[in-house]
Amino acid sequence: MIRLWGIRDAFEGVIPSVVATTDARGMPNISYLSHVHYVDERHVALSNQFFSKTSENVRHSGMATVMVVDGRTGQQHILHLRFTNAVGEGELFDRVAAHLTVTSAQQGMGEIMKLRSLDIYEVEDCRPVFGPAVPGAKEAGQPQHHHLAAAARICNVISAQVDTELMLDCALAELQGLLGYGNAMVLVPDGEGARLSTIASRGYSTFGFGSEVAVGEGTAGLAASSRRPLRISDFRRGQRYASAVREAAGSEVVSPIPFPALAEPRSQLAVPMLVRGRLMGVLFVESERSYAFDHNDEEALSLVANQLATSLLLAEQERPESTAEPQISGRSSRAAADRPVHVRYFPRDGGVFFDGEYIIRGLSGRLLHHFISAFLATGQADFFNRALRREPSLQLPDFKDNLETRLILLRRRLEERGGPIQIVRPVRGQVRLECAGRCEIEVG
Fold first, then answer.
1. Is-above-0.90 flag for pTM?
2. How much is the mean pLDDT over the chain?
3. CB-based burial label for 170 (10 Å; 0-12, 13-18, 19+)
4. Are 427 and 407 in contact (CB under 8 A)?
5. Which has the least CB within 10 A, 22, 329, 389, 396?
6. Closest CA relative to residue 368, chosen from 325, 404, 316, 422
7. Positive or negative, the Cα torsion across 43, 47, 48, 53?
8. Rounded to whole angstroms, how far apart are CA atoms 355 and 375?
9. In 10-157, at which residue ranges do the beta strands (DSSP E only) sit?
10. What confidence score (pLDDT) does residue 251 get?
11. Which residues in the chain land under pLDDT 50?
12. CA neighbours within 13 Å on the CB side: how many for 41?
């Protein structure tokens, strides 16, 4: 019997598998199913969505035969299975359900492919189906990269950084240099855990700082909500998912920031960044190539994501404070200009608009409103993290405040947009408002 680990690429769900069963009279029934999942060396799981006849036969005989196909090599294998049990919850069920949710959205099938249960089978035998070799196909199970060594080097680079911005940028640069992930981004959750915002990206025509996607939607959103990696190997069965991601990114935003997504991705991999169960963000990579990411990539990116999460948490807890004197001069370090800037602030969600253009919301929006209001009232241009944490209007929690990442997000969003209002960081633990315009604030 062939080891299941050696044919894991055949369990990607890219090419539908075929399942054969017989009823009580011996009448055969053949059906397609979307997923045969690797559980361990002796077990696989079959997704049960709507093949009721197959389920009925299996409940009677306890046996099934499945053919799986490796999407990279075309190699086929026959598995003889014995039913053991069905599960309707748990880690494995959630993982398969999340994968089906993404592929359903891709094909515009909504809830039609919703997972009913996951049927667990013991594998009694696994044998290859001999046929002509596919030209150019790699040998099954052949490693493509030295993922573990590369992941270890990237983790070392991340752990050596104490500056959060450098940490994020170094992580994406090393992922591209050592693992070849040319399109990558880091998204961080808002205070309510309802949305993810892009705080760092690499390989796109725009950075998209501040662009959002709802938790629970799309590959990155589902990885966040399930707290598990989610890998899609081939989107060729439809490209509607890309549109869904873009729509999700701006569905509830009054004037959305373009999401830095590939127009036609074929492979995506999203990994939650976790520390003791706390979601610090999502590390997301995608490619225009099919089968760009396999199990080795998933495991390597998980190592990097968790190192990045731990380093971000440590940077947040260190809370360095600047000893510089605050600048209160009646104007910022940038020369004030006569250009008027109409700032509109919505306290309900912290949304900020400049001259009718959406800028940002949430904690980053409340911070921006606080900076501009203080500057207009007193001329204060310098702000320190320790004072910001005590400012009641910002509604920061006593801990897990994400202040550092929200300041980075705000500064990068303003820098990418351009314009007369900018945020700079003279030293760690301090930010400075630069305003080269005559601001007027309207609330509500």
1. no
2. 83
3. middle
4. no
5. 329
6. 422
7. negative
8. 18
9. 17-22, 28-33, 36-40, 43-48, 63-69, 76-87, 117-129
10. 40
11. 140-141, 238-246, 248-255, 329-330, 333, 335
12. 4
